[in-house]
Amino acid sequence: MRRREFITLVGGAVAWPLAARAQQPAKMARIGVLASLPLPPLQRFSRKLREYGYIEGQNLRFEWRFAQGRDDRYPALAAELAALPVDMIVTWGTPAAIAAKQATGTIPIVMGAIADPVSVGIVSNLARPEGNITGFATQNVELEAKRLELLKDLLPQLARVGILGNVANPFLEVALKNLHRTASQLRVALELVEVQNSDQVEGALARLDQARLDAVLVSADTLLLTKRSEIATALTRSKLPAVYPFREYAAAGGLIVHGANLSVSFERAAGYVDRILKGAKPADLPIQLATDFELIINLKAAAALGLTLPEAIMIRATEVIE
């Protein structure tokens, strides 16, 4: 072997471990996500983390756990994430947040979206949440009343409203108390049509169809969200105007959606994840209230229902689906 070839070979051999070390990713962050379905707000969350420098497969690994409309699965899924263990758990919805809190008192938990963590006992204070949990609240307790007011604006003669709600979700009890106060002021009677799991949704929709109601409110609940197409289709077929809490209902044919922009909430949650991974404590990060809200009008659904929406509602819309 010639001298020049030998030097090149040895030099390359010395360089190999240096190059290998240079290509090693930073410490791998393992983030567990506990939700019902892989919907667009979670995709926005993932994209926002990339902006913070977390690249899946390099310095980030997701552990996705989806209950798929079965709230009874959350405790086992949360326990599974805690046992791995993950560095952090990100949740969507009240049942998921409760399960995560019960599964661990040490792993940081960021609630990407939850209605009201104080009223369901997850934390006692928004400003200083204490312990290992923080996040973003959608204000859905107050928004349920706003949705009822929207129905009254749409139908001035509104008298009887059905509430499609998941009684297994502690949020519903809190929301109903607020709703009944608003209903009393509007002189509207409420009729709860309840489910406890996704298998009961079809029967609940049949009961709504038979109840001779004027309109329906679909409660802010991730279990119901898994049946959004069936719910929107059935209520339109029953000629029941409805107001929904999440934008996915509008895409499924729902008439009106009013609620917090959950994609924005999950983008903000990515910021909290970044801060915690860099050393911040969840207890030092206040639970923040939603500030970005959507009012989506589906004119195709309105036509199917034979409705003309008042100008007062149309001018407030943030998005109109033709």
End-to-end C-alpha gap? 76 Å
Mean pLDDT: 92
User: Helix and strand succession?
Assistant: HEHEHEHEEHEHEHEHHEHEHEEHHE
CATH architecture assignment of the largest domain = 3-Layer(aba) Sandwich
Shape descriptor reads elongated
- What would you give as the CATH superfamily of the largest domain? Response regulator
Number of domains: 2
Q: Please report the total strand number as a whole number.
A: 13
Q: In the CATH hierarchy, what is the class of the largest domain?
A: Alpha Beta
Reconstruct the topology from this structure.
Elements: H1 3-23, E1 29-35, H2 40-51, E2 60-66, H3 74-83, E3 88-92, H4 94-103, E4 109-114, E5 133-137, H5 140-154, E6 160-166, H6 170-186, E7 189-195, H7 201-210, E8 215-218, H8 222-225, H9 228-237, E9 242-244, H10 247-251, E10 256-260, H11 262-277, E11 288-289, E12 293-298, H12 299-305, H13 311-314, E13 319-321
Parallel strand pairs: 1-2, 1-3, 3-4, 4-5, 5-11, 6-7, 6-8, 8-9, 9-10, 12-13
Antiparallel strand pairs: 10-12
Helix pairs in contact: 2-11, 3-4, 5-6, 7-9
Structure description:
There is one protein chain. The chain has 2 domains: 29-139 and 261-292, 3-Layer(aba) Sandwich (Rossmann fold), CATH 3.40.50; 140-259 and 294-321, Response regulator (Rossmann fold). It is 44% helix and 21% strand. It has helices at residues 3-23, 40-51, 74-83, 94-103, 140-154, 170-186, 201-210, 222-225, 228-237, 247-251, 262-277, 299-305, 311-314, and strands spanning 29-35, 60-66, 88-92, 109-114, 133-137, 160-166, 189-195, 215-218, 242-244, 256-260, 288-289, 293-298, 319-321. The strands form 2 sheets. The protein has a 7-stranded mixed sheet with strand order 7-6-8-9-10-12-13, sandwiched between helices.
